[in-house]
Design goal:
The complex is a heterodimer of chains A (340) and B (448). With 340 residues, chain A is an alpha+beta fold. The radius of gyration of chain A is 26 Å and the shape is elongated. In chain A, helix 6 runs antiparallel to helix 7. Chain A is built from 9 helices and 4 strands; from the N terminus they run ααβαββαβααααα. Chain B is of the alpha+beta class and 448 residues long. Chain B folds into 2 domains: 220 residues, Multidrug efflux transporter AcrB transmembrane fold, CATH 1.20.1640; 220 residues, Gyrase A, domain 2. Chain B is 55% helix and 17% strand. In chain B, the strands form 3 sheets. A 4-stranded antiparallel beta sheet of chain B has the order 2-3-1-11. In chain B, helix 3 runs antiparallel to helix 7, helix 8 packs across helix 9 and helix 10 runs antiparallel to helix 11. The longest helix of chain B has 55 residues. The chains are: A alpha+beta (340), B alpha+beta (448). Chains A and B meet through strand 4, helix 5, helix 7, helix 8 and helix 9 of A and helix 4, strand 11, helix 8, helix 9 and helix 10 of B.
């Protein structure tokens, strides 16, 4: 796509009259908000269902729930029943067993947390009753460790969020900062919603790497918003006051559109590569980042800026009513002559 | 002509820049690639354990001193395992984090680390024949060992050394040879003197389990066994004898420990992961390459060259800094490839804008770089912030992601800005490449 044949990129020249840009993004604010709300609704509903059926809003992986996972490659084809019968000897018959359907040789067995001796005993039974295997992976996470990991994960998300909030508050004035934060919250909550939905439908689990993904989304997605807001501030200085705030925002969005989209796209391309070619461990991680970055660029363009317009219009309407002019609401102290 | 001599001078300056970049790249690549890649245990196979020290009657509270003791003993036992580059780290109040990359037999290693290994020589109070036996006919200490054995304070901490010893002639089983410290030797002599000829056994207990109950012959009744050495016989194989010797030499753990987290990856799975990560990395670079050339044309191509330099430099730097590559680390690296090129996207979009507003190519390029800089800085600050949090709070393998992503972002400052600028300005020295068309801007637009 080549969406930047914008002939009037020097806004100062067109000091009066309407600006020349391609997409009127602000006009359709209602549509963008509705889209986000729809996704949010699906996410929240999924979380509620998940909470009712699993006890947690998202399907927790081994990292957080605790448990023992064995990934075994048997030398000959086996059946789930054989595995289950062998496990029943240790009262583990209700374990979750995933058998690779193409080969019937690779099995993932997820059990409650086992002590080392218990695990060795289970492995010995499987070897005797089902067949010899090569063990690819053992993961045992004790229940306390799981809770600890979950707690430090949530803490990390909160701290990162807090730091970004501080950063934004220092960098922008209050209302800009608030909406940038709202957009960020939008990205995180929607990503979690999508994973709650995936957890219910395809059994997608969240692990430590999902927390890492959330953190990365927080760090990366804020950039597009910052760039767009910078451009809005820059344009407000260059363009006559007669032009409405909505127009300026529209122009700024159009000017930064290609840039926002392309930086996100170039970051997504390697993630797509991981999703296609990477191993199982990284797949969920890459998908989380893809979803989050997608919401990130969407919220920067279609949520954060229209929200700002809505807010400014509301505020200036109030100012007009009050016929008050102690401070011009359109006057922005443009502290940083920032770019793009 | 003044103008051409100026551009000649410029060109010389860029040539210098080019040579500098080339030198840095060659040096880094030479230094980096001459080392072997350090693979984390999720790629090489190995075991990562979290051990928790448990309070008991003897050790009611896990103090930092106790943990240091646990750490020292575990460290010694691991040394006995012969694992390359193990990691032992106290984490939190009562936990110990252990990484054993490339360990051949993880189950054996876990057993070796987990036992308390409290050795105790006790005085038998009844003859061997009166001791209870299990279903295999082996002698045991029964329900309550204190009824049949008396503690005399001859414990593992009085040992100086322990070795596995090959089977004697006519025997199949290995033995463990013990060497006492002087105080231990004295106690041992005294104990054997008391027991000699009585038919009552010497009870050798490991973690309160009787592992051997030899009888001391009457010939030692006067002197006891002197010389400060003793041999534990039992049903030992070469492995179990070696492991027991390692445990005894390292001493007993000051507190009981339990494995509360175990992540063990088989070597085969590790190899598969390495291969798949390599595919993903190469696939990611290729996708970005194609996109950049397709969208940004000539500058895109230059960004691709810079990206290649980026990938090489970053990888070389990982090697120089001794970064261990793990799966999350590789993910961070691959992701950073996409983020590194973001800086170029910012610059090129700005250049396009400058071109469209009618500025000359040269001016547009230098403006593009100057004005995009603060955005680039901005966008990296937030990501670095998150990396810092992750590094601070993250544990184990997840930390690798923060490290590689952060290093990648820092390197990209150099490659995406300095390299791209030098390369772009060098290319501009070639007149036939100065058409706006090559920079993805339509001629009409540029002229309007």
């Amino acid at each position: 796509m080549n969406g930047q044949e914008i002939s009037s990129t020097d806004p100062a020249v067109q000091a009066s009259g309407s600006l020349n840009y391609r997409f009127d993004i602000v006009k359709r604010s209602r549509l963008w908000f509705t889209l986000s709300l729809a996704v949010l609704l699906v996410g929240l509903t999924s979380m509620a269902f998940s909470l009712a059926s699993l006890g947690t809003p998202l399907r927790l992986g081994l990292d957080f729930s605790g448990g023992t996972l064995l990934d075994l490659s048997f030398e000959q084809a086996i059946t789930t029943e054989e595995l289950r019968q062998a496990l029943q000897k240790h009262n583990l018959g209700s374990s979750i067993i995933q058998l690779d359907t193409t080969t019937s040789q690779d099995a993932l067995i997820r059990m409650p947390p086992l002590l080392e001796e218990e695990r060795l005993a289970v492995e010995a039974t499987l070897r005797e009753e089902v067949g010899t295997f090569e063990r690819n992976l053992v993961e045992t996470v004790g229940p306390t460790v799981g809770r600890l990991l979950l707690r430090s994960g949530i803490l990390a998300v909160l701290i990162s969020f807090g730091l970004i909030v501080v950063y934004l508050s220092l960098r922008f004035q209050l209302d800009y900062a608030v909406f940038a934060i709202l957009a960020l919250l939008h990205d995180v909550v929607l990503t979690m919603g999508v994973f709650a939905f995936l957890g219910l439908t395809v059994g997608m689990e969240v692990d430590s790497l999902f927390v890492v993904a959330l953190l990365t989304i927080i760090g990366f997605s804020v950039n597009d918003t910052v760039v767009i807001y910078d451009r809005i501030r820059e344009n407000r200085r260059l363009i006559s006051r007669k032009v409405s705030f909505a127009e300026v925002v529209n122009l700024s969005l159009n000017q930064t559109f290609a840039r926002s989209l392309n930086t996100t796209l170039t970051t997504m391309l390697p993630l797509i590569a991981i999703t296609i070619w990477g191993g199982v461990t990284l797949k969920g991680f890459a998908i989380a980042l893809l979803v989050g970055f997608g919401f990130g660029v969407y919220s920067s363009i279609f949520i954060a800026s229209p929200l700002l317009v809505w807010w400014r219009q509301r505020r200036s309407a109030r100012f007009v009513e009050e016929v008050n002019a102690d401070r011009d609401p359109q006057q922005l102290p443009s502290d940083s002559p920032s770019s793009l | 002509m003044v103008k051409s001599s100026g551009s000649l001078l410029n060109r010389l300056a860029f040539l210098r820049g080019l040579i500098f970049i080339l030198a840095v790249v060659v040096a880094l690549v030479y230094l980096g690639f001459s080392r072997e890649v350090r693979l984390g245990l999720d790629l090489k196979g190995g075991t990562q354990l979290t051990l928790q020290a448990l309070p008991s009657e003897e050790v009611p509270e896990i103090t930092p001193d106790v943990m240091q003791g646990v750490e020292a003993v575990i460290q010694q036992r691991i040394n006995g395992l012969g694992v390359a580059e193990p990691l032992v780290q106290i984490s939190g109040q009562d936990r110990l984090f252990v990484q054993l990359p490339g360990v051949a037999d993880p189950d054996r290693a876990i057993a070796l680390l987990g036992d308390t290994a409290q050795l105790d020589f006790r005085k038998g109070l009844v003859p061997v024949s009166a001791l209870p036996r299990n279903e295999l006919g082996e002698v045991t200490a029964g329900e309550d060992p204190d009824v049949v054995f008396e503690r005399v304070g001859l414990t593992g901490d009085l040992l100086r050394n322990a070795y596995p010893q090959a089977p004697r002639r006519g025997s199949q089983t290995w033995e463990v040879l013990l060497e006492f410290k002087p105080e231990g030797a004295e106690k041992f002599t005294q104990l054997t003197r008391e027991l000699a000829g009585t038919g009552r056994p010497l009870g050798i207990f490991l973690d309160d389990v009787l592992i051997s109950a030899p009888v001391v012959g009457p010939e030692f009744a006067r002197t006891g066994i002197t010389g400060g050495t003793a041999v534990i016989t039992g049903n030992f194989s070469v492995e179990t004898a070696t492991d027991l010797a390692v445990k005894l030499k390292a001493g007993a753990l000051p507190a009981r420990i339990q494995v509360i987290e175990n992540r063990t990856v088989g070597a085969t799975l590790g190899e598969v992961s390495v291969r798949r990560s390599l595919y993903a990395g190469i696939g990611g670079i290729v996708l970005v390459f194609i996109f950049m050339v397709a969208y940004y044309r000539l500058p895109g191509l230059i960004a691709d060259v810079a990206l290649l330099i980026y990938a090489l430099c970053t990888f070389a730097l990982f090697q120089l800094l001794g970064v261990t590559m793990t799966l999350p680390g590789i993910a961070g690296f691959i992701l950073s490839i996409g983020m590194a090129v973001d800086a170029n996207v910012l610059i090129f979009e700005r250049i396009k804008e400058e071109l469209r507003s009618g500025k000359s190519l040269y001016k547009s390029i230098s403006e593009g770089f100057n004005r995009a800089f603060s955005s680039i800085l901005d966008s990296n600050v937030t990501t670095l912030l998150v990396c810092a949090v992750l590094f601070w709070l993250g544990i184990g393998l997840v930390k690798g992601f923060a490290v590689t992503l952060a290093i990648g972002i820092l390197v990209s400052f150099f490659t995406a800005i300095t390299c791209t600028r030098t390369l772009l300005l060098t290319v501009m020295g070639i007149p036939s490449l100065r058409k706006p068309h090559f920079y993805g801007v339509r001629v009409e637009a540029a002229q309007s």
